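Dear Dr. H.,

I hope your travels went smoothly. While you were away I took the liberty of generating a structure for the chain from your last submission, since the lab meeting agenda had it listed for discussion. I wanted you to have the full record in hand beforehand rather than looking at slides cold. The sequence, exactly as received, is reproduced here:
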Amino acid sequence: MSRRLRRSLPWVGTALAVVTVFSTMRRKGVVGGVLDTGFNAVPVLGTAKNVVELARGKDFFPDRPRVARGPQ
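The corresponding predicted structure, in token form, is as follows:
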């Protein structure tokens, strides 16, 4: 059972990365979302990026400004 689970983990990780990149791209834009997810996918670099962002209190790739839609 553990060998089968171990073989399936790369597929599960890939699926999670694809879901994460699309939601991050919606929030941060195409380039910012891809870069943010790509940096987070690299083990040491992602950890260092997240620690620095936590210490700074803001993201390296900020979210896009929200556009108000509808009648005002």
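Two observations you may find useful: The helical segments are 2-28, 30-41, 43-56. The chain has one domain: 2-56.

With kind regards,
E. W.
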